[in-house]
Amino acid sequence: MSEAVLDASAVLALINEEPGAEVVDALLDDAVISAVNLSEVIAVLVDAGFELDRASGRIGALGLGVIAFDEPQALRAGALRRATRQAGLSFGDRACLGLAEALALPAVTADRRWATLGLASEIQLIR
After folding, report:
1. Secondary-structure class of domain 4-125 per CATH
2. What is the model's pTM?
3. What's the pLDDT tens digit per position in 29-85?
4. How far apart (Å, rounded) are the C-alpha atoms in residues 48 and 46?
5. Distance (Å, rounded) from C-alpha 97 to C-alpha 119?
6. How far is Cα 2 from Cα 74, in angstroms, rounded to an integer?
7. How many CB atoms lie within 10 A of CB 61?
8. Sign of CA dihedral 111, 8, 94, 5
9. How does DSSP classify residue 70?
10. Confidence of residue 2 (pLDDT cuts 50, 70, 90)
């Protein structure tokens, strides 16, 4: 059973061995990620010079469950725009938050802006 939904920033902190990586590492066995956030992680790794196969292998080695982005999630992410606009959250951010809300799990992120929004979802900052 899943215990947390990881944002791209949390996964990248782990991959890049940044502060907070140990928090993410401790959650890996019971964490999931939205396919939208997986795409964000792949994009950052490819921009950093990784070939797609290598980037995909790095993510695959983490053993994360990947949750497909479907119509109910699209509606939820869209509805979160008004509540998150002032903080400048992206579509990917809203996809993560929407998935966390749907699964009633904490959203794990390195983005401190999320904690200031007063959303229904629990936010767990990694640093």
Report:
1. alpha beta
2. 0.95
3. 999 999 999 999 999 999 999 999 999 999 999 999 999 999 999 999 999 999 999
4. 5
5. 9
6. 21
7. 9
8. negative
9. -
10. confident
